[in-house]
């Protein structure tokens, strides 16, 4: 087993550090910016269906559901098709309204999650086209779909999903770009810019991983906290949910992810000097708004751990801790902003003596309801 861990103390840490490579593997053969090559076999087969889709419904569970939320922002913005993201377990019992012009995308790392499989079978019976995004080749969900794309992240052993998430987001980004360009909602210049930027993501993830030592120090200070709040807006909102889920799963600290502006409708009541608040506040279209959210947290003496874009000076002047990540397009930011949150949850869990790779009560793949 120690050989399989490749010198890392845990599979989770190894998998976090594999991300520059696994993200590249998710793009391999599908995109070469230099030669304007952007193609995905599974989509090509169903190109007309995608171009004329009425609606895209994403069904998934856990971390895969968070990847689906990122895709909602991407597909609506770039391809202008309405997207709904559903918990598979709710969708399957809701008597959902579906027809032949709807595409259902099922996202699952393992391809074996019982609720996701049942949700797609239901959608299929109502005539929708089913597209799968799975990591495990030949899995039940991969076999049950009409078409699909593998994430090519390689085996993920740690129960808490890390590299599978960034691989899912990479594939979903490519899908949004492909449909957007086919539908003419994404201009060629913008498409090219995104392709060039996406190619730089593996090396930017590599840079973000160099924050590891700094995150160890922050983890030391907060390892005994009993609650954590994670805030983000726009593309970073699903990242806030994912950061909170990672911490819950492996450190057993109660954590909540929230859209930063919703904080005033509840969680703000919890903020005092004991409450660490992780704010993902990178430079994007909601930056000014999130600056005020940070001020609201500081006014209530919360401890702010801010993830910011390199070179930012406004948020660092207010935050207690600043984690700087490289600049990128807001469409691609989740691929970078999730990295420090994965590391934070990992180190806090290790410091608390938790079984990081096999947390209590959780399973890597949930094949029962
Ligand atoms: C379990 C795992 C999570 C995963 C979820 C969905 O809860 O512990 O890491 O996100 O199932 O799994 P799937 O394989 O469908 O992505």
From TrEMBL:
Keywords: Aminotransferase, Cytoplasm, Glutamine amidotransferase, Repeat, Transferase. It catalyses: D-fructose 6-phosphate + L-glutamine = D-glucosamine 6-phosphate + L-glutamate. It is found in: Cytoplasm. GO terms for cellular component: cytosol. GO terms for biological process: amino sugar biosynthetic process; carbohydrate metabolic process; fructose 6-phosphate metabolic process; protein N-linked glycosylation; UDP-N-acetylglucosamine metabolic process. It is an enzyme of class 2 (transferase). The active site is at residue 364. GO terms for molecular function: carbohydrate derivative binding; glutamine-fructose-6-phosphate transaminase (isomerizing) activity. Its EC number is 2.6.1.16. The keyword Cytoplasm applies. Catalyzes the first step in hexosamine metabolism, converting fructose-6P into glucosamine-6P using glutamine as a nitrogen source. This is Glutamine--fructose-6-phosphate aminotransferase [isomerizing]. The gene is glmS. The chain holds residues 243 to 611 of 611 of the full protein.
